[in-house]
Amino acid sequence: MSCGKELPEGAAFCTACGTPTGVQNATVTPASSLNLGSTLNATETLADARDIVMNKKIMSLREHYDFEDPSGRKLGDGEGNFVQVPAKFVVVSLVGNQEQELLHINGKVISLRHEFHLFDPNGSELGTMKKKIAKLMGSEYWLEQNGRELMKIYGNFSAHDYSMSINGQPVAQVHRKWVSMRNQFGVSITGEVDHRLVIGSAIVIEHLEVTSENTGIRFGV
Q1: Which pLDDT does position 65 carry in this prediction?
Q2: Is the distance from CB of 125 to CB of 106 less than 8 angstroms?
Q3: % of the chain exceeding 90 in pLDDT
Q4: Are 71 and 64 in contact (CB under 8 A)?
Q5: CA dist list (Å): 29 to 34, 35, 68, 92
Q6: Is the pLDDT of residue 147 over 70?
Q7: Backbone Cα Rg of the chain
Q8: Who's near 158: CB < 8 A, 6+ residues apart?
Q9: What is residue 116's three-state secondary structure?
Q10: Does position 100 have pLDDT exceeding 70, yes or no?
Q11: Distance between CA 122 and CA 26 in Å, rounded?
């Protein structure tokens, strides 16, 4: 350069005097086009969202959930009366400005085991969730399809910290990782699984492991 300063290779300007070197500036990639990890999708519905916040409310004999994405956008809600026989809980998804049923749950007690049947809006069974009553080390849940085990559920249920797996592979986790309020917990769906099975299982576990212990309200009782 005219000032005699040695320049680094590819410099567009002299770092000492500011004189242009004639080298074209490198192209700057807009931040909007960079892959900065997963971003929130404003068109996601409850049926396809992978990160869901469940806000729990207890209203007399009814239990209610508001489902949101991590930004607070409403995805749907659910409500049921667990005292009626059979106990029933209905989950609806917000699609545009319309609410559409996503699934409903019927619960009953058979012998020494609770059973919860998950159905689609047309009444076709999605799966049956079961809980062992007697177990030396805490509770145990699993979900069956056509009489065969599909999904295992294990962890610290009362603390909202448990996982779901299919064929030994984790597909979803319930946690407080990115929620802080006492009546909130998060659901992360990480694998290939029908999201309705995950949401329905979380509702059942929340009722039996947390709500029923605090209020005495139980399915079919």
Answers
A1: 94
A2: no
A3: 48
A4: no
A5: 7, 11, 33, 41
A6: yes
A7: 25
A8: 209, 210, 213
A9: strand
A10: yes
A11: 58
Q: Are 70 and 53 in contact (CB under 8 A)?
A: yes
Task: Give backbone dihedrals phi and psi of 148, rounded to 5 degrees, phi first.
Answer: -120, 140
Q: Please state the length of the chain.
A: 221
Confidence of residue 94 (pLDDT cuts 50, 70, 90): very high
Q: Regarding predicted confidence, which is higher, 34 or 75? A: 75
* Amino acid making up residue 156: N
Q: What are phi and psi of 84, to 5 degrees?
A: -65, 160
Closest CA to 100 of 72, 73, 75: 75
pTM value? 0.74
Q: Domains, the chain, ranges and CATH?
A: 1-37 (no CATH), 51-215 (2.40.160.200)
- Which of 52, 61, 75 lies closest to 178, judged by CA? 52
Q: Give the pair of three-digit tokens for residue 201.
A: 């299982």
In the predicted structure, residue 137 carries a pLDDT above the cut 50? yes
Confirm if 114 and 131 have CB atoms less than 8 A apart.
yes
pLDDT of residue 27: 38
CA distance 28 to 92: 45
pLDDT for the residue 108:
74
